[in-house]
Specification:
This protein is an alpha/beta fold. Helix content is 37%, strand content 20%. It is globular. The structure holds NADP nicotinamide-adenine-dinucleotide phosphate. The site of NADP nicotinamide-adenine-dinucleotide phosphate has 24 residues, from helix 1 and helix 4. NADP nicotinamide-adenine-dinucleotide phosphate binds next to helix 1 and helix 4.
Length: 220
């Protein structure tokens, strides 16, 4: 499959590397076609890895993964435009985090709004699926880093797209389908994005490393 990764940070790197390793052809997009991180990433992985602008990467991909800094994702996607994203599945992995004046990490918008919804509203012909944003990128691509059963959350307005993404997450990264919880339409990304302040507190203040996850336990 041809896959576009929009983002040159640790998430883009982890997802892009794993996808090339399992046999896909991946283009990593950036604001600048000559972005050093993207070029180094591509040259380390051989002929199935490429670097390009956000727009050229999205045009290349049959499926697009958006993993830019969440307060900048709309700007990145606006530089792509609607056509290269038309009818494609876009997996949004980003969280709209920013630093508050006291240095703490907060959400730039939330509660009655979310990045997942903003993307879908701006690109109505794109099949937006919010997924993976509640786990560290090393756990995204290797869920067994966290022992036992634990959950991923998925949401989106297109049921067929969510089904396809669930299959990809199992095939690509080894997530058990029964551990992927479909939360319904994209308004659910308000909740999954708002899990981030709790995730940050667990990371920094309690667990001290990012290899943990949420496990939903159902009562009778
Ligand atoms: N780190 C994790 O394990 C983790 C886990 C779950 C979710 N997330 C979410 O995944 C996303 C990516 O995280 P990350 O740490 O890999 O990368 P990041 O440092 O948050 O973002 C890097 C990307 O954002 C782009 N960017 C920055 N400013 C921009 C602007 N003004 N306009 C357009 N694009 C801009 C950069 O473009 P250039 O390439 O041009 O520099 C780069 O591709 C974030 O939203 C984060 O919250 C992260």
């Amino acid at each position: 499959m041809k896959i576009a990764i929009l983002g040159t940070g640790m998430v883009g790197n982890a997802l892009g590397t794993k996808l090339v390793q399992v046999g896909h052809e991946v283009t990593m997009g950036s604001r600048n076609a000559n972005n050093a991180a993207a070029q180094n990433w591509a040259s380390s992985l051989g002929e199935r890895a490429h670097a390009a602008t956000f727009r050229a990467a999205a045009a290349f991909g049959e499926l697009v993964i958006s993993c830019t800094g969440g307060m900048h994702s709309m700007e990145a996607l606006e530089s792509v435009g609607a056509e290269p994203l038309r009818n494609k599945i876009l997996i949004d992995v980003s969280n709209p985090l920013q630093q508050d004046t006291d240095g703490s990490i907060i959400l730039g918008f939330c509660n009655t709004d979310s990045l997942g919804e903003r993307i879908q509203k701006a690109f109505p012909a794109t099949r937006v699926v919010k997924a993976l944003n509640t786990v560290n990128c090393e756990v995204m691509i290797e869920p067994t880093r966290v022992p036992g059963d634990h959950n991923l959350f998925i949401c989106g307005n297109d049921a067929a797209a969510k089904k396809e993404v669930t299959k990809y997450l199992s095939e690509w990264f080894g997530w058990k389908a029964e551990n992927i919880i479909d939360l319904g339409d994209l308004t659910a990304s308000r909740g999954t994005e708002m899990m981030m302040p709790l995730w940050m507190r667990l990371f920094q203040g309690v667990i001290g490393h990012p290899h943990f996850n949420y496990h939903i336990v159902r009562g009778r």
